[in-house]
Amino acid sequence: MAPVFPIHQPRPPHVAFEKDLRTKLLHGERVTFTENLREYCLNTTIHGLKYIGTVSLTLCERAYFFLTFIVVTACSIYFISNVYIKWQSSPIIIGLNPIATHIKHIPFPAVTICNMNQIRREAAERIEAHTLEQTVLQSICSIDGDFNVTQYEGKWSAVKKLLLSATQPCSGLLKACSYAKQPEKCTDIFQSVFTDEGLCCTFNALDSEFMFRNATAPNIFPTEVSDGVGRFRPILWTPEGGYAEHPSNATYPRVIAGTGVTMGLAMVLDANVSDYFCSSTSSTGFKIIFHNPTETPKITDYAQYIPVGSENRIIITPKINDAADQIRKVAQSQRQCVFANEANLSYYSVYSRNNCELECEAKLILENCGCVLYYLPKLYEDTKICSRANARCYEQIRSSIAFTANTSLSCTCLPGCYEFSYIPDVTTAELVVGRFGIRENLLYDVKDEQYAKNNLALVYIFVKDTYYRSFTKGELVGFTDFLSNVGGLLGLFLGFSIISLIEVIYFVTLRPYCAKRKQRATLKEHGFESNNHLNAARRDLLWFGSKPPVTAVQFIGDHEYRASEFQLQPGRNAMVTEFVAKVKHLVHSRLQQANGWARNTFRSRRNQLGRGFGQERTAPSYPFYD
């Protein structure tokens, strides 16, 4: 009778595959890269890969899912590249800060005032011809003529001496001053400063101790002794860090005291027009500029005019630029600004675009002409000061710097990420003195109407608002936003997540390492040292490794034997022993069945032969059948 084999339910492909892998690892066999890749495809959380790794699908079906996966991956890469380009090309956005800044945190602007007259006529007429003083005078007034080059040594001390003696001092320029309703002595709150217009007077500027890196280098503030020395104490202020200590009425730079004309700065200016000798303009009066307390002003190019015989009200609007800390990691070329810790100035301690441009201009003129202009930064006392003989050279350098299309000589100075600037709004009226009574105490001592009309100017400087909003540079697309966009696109197209990335890392690194270690441990435990034993185990796995846990082999007329009775037992040659036992069982069962068939067949045949002879044989049986 033929054997009857039971029909078993098929197992899922990934379950059978995982069992095969575990069996291989158990017997110390090496798992190949293809098998590892297939296991990853069957178990990963990325959509679509499990269909590629399922061998039960046809080749056409697997190819369909493979091509679909490639197309979807390409689409996700395309959209992610667009997000990355946006992140890199425009990472910065400038917006209005929702939190306004109170004026108690804003310094009053530094106010620099110059008389349009650069040299007093009285002092110029005392200078003899063909002397060193005349050469310096020609350089200051930009007068062409015969230059006494042999006597001109270009020493800063000589130029400084002439500027201090031949220009109008602050005590003569400023007749009366007041700040925040308090009358002040002008020489106490103003100090002299060298600018491109000669000797000028500045209010609320940062002290030279904090403005310049080298205290011994020549600076723009000449030392003058006044009655107010020591009355006001200098403190540090920077646009990025603010005040180093709490400001008070006895410190400077001063904060904005309040709003309105009475809480601002008021002053009476005297041009002394009769003493004019040379000027950079064709009119009489004053030049005034409002700037950051840490900057050196450029009067010639950017100052505003204050005519004589006028009363002027100037409303100041502070403009504040700041930045978020998140943009510090963005490159300077992209954020287009410089933080304080990134500044690399040699002369100034506090970075600003204006200070950077002045320092750059001084270096270019020194490199190309061998000298510097008297008002530019000088690192050393013996640096040569340019005369009119060098005018052609330094004027060409200055024109090249100012010409924005020029690339050979240029000063590329980015603005500071934190900057303060002040926008003036000037209104002017005719100054009238002596005709009627007025409440202005600053003009109390002025009685000559004609002199006031030809020489004096009254100036008020104040703010009108208590709060001002700043313009803040922030991240348009930060790393968190970029990561969110990329994660959304990957999740939409592929179902990819951080866990998916961890899976990739695991199957590439940790999985092979652990499998190798487990293989070594198995080989050592079971003593698979011989290639013959290893080959026998592989053959046995090939023949019997995929059997279901319970397999019944039933022959009709015989009892049932179960393969579970011959499960793998621990021992040295367990696989070989099990294989031999199975073979013995199979041979034994077949021999028993064949013996039964033969016995029944022979008995039936003998009975038929006996009936054929007409008698039943009682004699001994035939030897053949026995």
Question: Any descriptors?
Answer:
626 residues, alpha+beta, Acid-sensing ion channels like fold, eight-stranded mixed sheet, 23 strands, disordered N terminus, disordered C terminus, transmembrane helix, Pickpocket, ENaC, membrane
Please explain how this structure is put together.
It is a single chain. By secondary structure, the chain is of the alpha+beta class. Among the domains are: 30-90 and 477-510, no CATH class; 99-321 and 424-468, Acid-sensing ion channels like domains (Acid-sensing ion channels like fold), CATH 2.60.470.10. The protein has 19 helices and 23 strands. The strands form seven sheets. Strands 1, 5, 6, 13, 17, 18, 19 and 21 form an eight-stranded mixed β-sheet that branches. A hairpin with a 2-residue loop joins strand 5 (174-179) and strand 6 (182-184). Helix 4 (59-89) runs antiparallel to helix 16 (479-493). The longest helix has 39 residues, at 574-612. It is elongated and about 170 Å long.
Write a brief caption for the model:
With 626 residues, the chain is an alpha+beta fold. It contains 19 helices and 23 strands. The strands form seven sheets. Strands 1, 5, 6, 13, 17, 18, 19 and 21 form an eight-stranded mixed sheet that branches. Strands 7-8-3-15-16 form a five-stranded antiparallel sheet.
Spatial shape: elongated
Q: Give the biggest sheet.
A: 8 strands, mixed
CATH level-3 fold name of the domain at 99-321 and 424-468: Acid-sensing ion channels like fold
Mean pLDDT across all amino acids = 78
**Share in helix:** 25-40%
The class by helix and strand makeup works out as: alpha+beta
GO cellular component, one term: plasma membrane
Protein name: Pickpocket
Subcellular location: Membrane
Pfam family, one: ASC
